[in-house]
Design goal:
The protein is mostly helical. It has 2 domains: 70 residues, Winged helix-like DNA-binding domain superfamily/Winged helix DNA-binding domain (Arc Repressor Mutant, subunit A), CATH 1.10.10.10; 144 residues, Up-down Bundle (Four Helix Bundle (Hemerythrin (Met), subunit A)). Helix content is 75%, strand content 4%. It has 9 helices and 2 strands. Strands 1-2 form a two-stranded antiparallel ribbon. The longest helix has 27 residues. It is globular, with a radius of gyration of 19 Å. It starts with a helix and ends with a helix.
């Protein structure tokens, strides 16, 4: 195995670990990622670590405060609004295209799964199962759209979205509403109704943004 391949794999491992830790909140905004300490902790040399940090920087998840100091990027209400602006543009367009190009039966089956998902949200794994279903739905939309540029842009958005979701408080009522909203989108795609799918996506994203911002505001005010 060549040194280049070994380094690439080490870089990929370091990137995956740091990404998960940033998205989960284990590495909070403002955390300093010192090269020597992080390389030792992750069991890689400094070169693949730098490559991993460059990937994270390109995605906007870390930033250079100085030539030698890299920190986890912060994210605030304005960042979240900006994220949802691009998310809305991409996902509404993707919904229209997926209605035209996608497999109606596949989206019909996903709509049925969303119909059942609401009843299982209270289970121990209900929330995780629901997010896994959303991931499969997103993958089906991406495959239907079949546009590498849109898919790449959505991957970047979703990378940040995982982080935003974890920042927001649990809201059972919002989660149940989200299930119903996804079901409507999937049903519209199954019926090849692009305008309904785009409109339902718009409503879903508007409601999601409002809920997230309300949650962050409540947390900043110290409300229970």
């Amino acid at each position: 195995m060549s040194t280049t391949v070994e380094r690439t794999r080490a870089s990929d491992r370091a990137y995956a670990t740091l990404l998960e830790e940033i998205q989960s909140g284990a590495l909070a905004p403002g955390t300093v990622l010192a090269e020597v300490e992080q390389a030792a902790r992750l069991g890689v040399s400094r070169t693949p670590l730098r490559e991993a940090l460059q990937q994270l920087s390109a995605a906007g998840l870390v930033e250079q405060q100085s030539p030698r100091v890299t920190v986890v990027s912060g994210i605030d209400a304005d960042d979240i609004r900006s994220l949802f602006e691009i998310r809305r543009a991409l996902e509404e367009s993707a919904a229209r295209l997926a209605a035209e190009r996608g497999d109606a039966e596949q989206f019909g089956a996903l709509a049925s799964e969303f119909a059942l998902a609401g009843a299982s949200l209270g289970a121990a794994t209900g929330r995780d199962d629901y997010y896994a279903l959303i991931a499969r739905f997103d993958a089906a939309v991406d495959a239907a759209v079949d546009n590498d540029y849109i898919a790449a842009a959505l991957r970047t958005v979703r990378t940040h979205l995982v982080r935003v979701r974890r920042m927001a408080r649990d809201n059972p009522e919002r989660l149940a509403a989200s299930v119903a909203e996804h079901r409507l989108i999937a049903e519209a795609l199954a019926e090849r109704d692009g305008e309904l799918a785009a409109h339902a996506t718009h409503v879903h994203l508007r409601n999601a943004l409002t809920s997230i911002l309300d949650s962050l505001h409540a947390e900043s005010e110290g409300q229970p």
